[in-house]
Structures are given as C-alpha cells and as structure tokens.
Amino acid sequence: MSEDNENTLNEEETEKQLLAAMSEQMKLLDYVAKAGKPLPSGEQIAAREAVIEALKTVSDPEIMINVWDMGLIYNIEIKDNGDVFIDMTVTAPTCPVAGILPGQAAEAVAAVKGVGSVEVKLVWEPAWTFERMSDDAKMMFEMF
C-alpha cells in the first residue's frame, strides 16, 4: 500500500470517528427527561421554593454536591396548571451522568405536592463554570 493510500485511509477513519462523536453529541443536545402527570384541576400549585428543595436532593454522584448548589439549574418555569419546565446543564458534554441527572431531577420535582408533569431539558448555553456554584458548594468542592 502506498503512503498516499494509507494517509487517505487514516483521514477517512478520522472523519468517521469525528462524525460519530458529533452524532453522540447531538443526542445529548436533544435530551429531555420527563416525569409526573397532570395535576387535577383546582389543586394548589407548588411554590418555587419547594421545587428548589426537591432539586437539592439530587446530587452528582462523582462529587456529592446537589444540582442546585452546583449551579446546574439554569431556569425553572412553573405553569398555572402545575407543570414544571426546567433547563439544566452538566459540567461538560462528556459528563458520565449527563443522561442520568436530568431524569433524577425530573423524578424528584414530580414527587413534590402541587407539581404536575415535569420536563427537564439538558442545555449547553451558557457553558457551566465554577462561578455558578453556591459558596457552600465551592467550599465542599475544595475538600475533594
């Protein structure tokens, strides 16, 4: 095999690997976890603080700091019917728990009295940074 043919094969293999990696990245970009069910009409809607307390029960298993204090929750929207929509991120696209934490967050929030259906969408903008962490989380993180 000539050197030119070998280089072409290496480039083709590299391109295949990059496309495969991009495809996996796109799967993460579109990830949405759902839990709960619609609230019966007339039931009192949960307070934002109750939703936040539920999110504080979900921790990143690698560092044992909850998703709220880690600064992974970007937005919480509670609708008039009790449905909750949350935008959250993880520390990096390659985070091994990227497919687990949103589901755990959705289940935790769905268990709150006054919450209907829950949707947790994994987002990447803006990128997560250490500055998003609470002061308590930063102190805990320094212990590791």
Structure description:
By secondary structure, the chain is α+β, with helices and mostly antiparallel strands. The protein has two domains: 1-30; 32-143, GMP Synthetase, Chain A, domain 3 (2-Layer Sandwich), CATH 3.30.300. Helices cover 38% and strands 14% of the residues. The protein has helices spanning 3-29, 48-55, 101-110, 135-143; strands spanning 32-35, 73-78, 84-88, 118-122.
Distance between the termini: 52 Å
Radius of gyration (Å): 20 Å
Order of helices and strands: HEHEEHEH
Largest β sheet strand count, sense and barrel closure: 4 strands, mixed
**Mean of residue pLDDT values:** 84
**Side-by-side strand order of the widest sheet:** 1-4-3-2
Q: Could you say how many structural domains there are in total?
A: 2
Superfamily (CATH H level) name of the largest domain = Fe-S cluster assembly (FSCA)
The chain-level structural class is: alpha+beta
Please tally the β strands and state the result.
4
Low-confidence stretches: none
CATH architecture level-2 label of the largest domain = 2-Layer Sandwich
CATH topology of the largest domain: GMP Synthetase, Chain A, domain 3
Q: Please, how many helices?
A: 4
Shape: globular
Question: What is the CATH top level name of the largest domain?
Answer: Alpha Beta
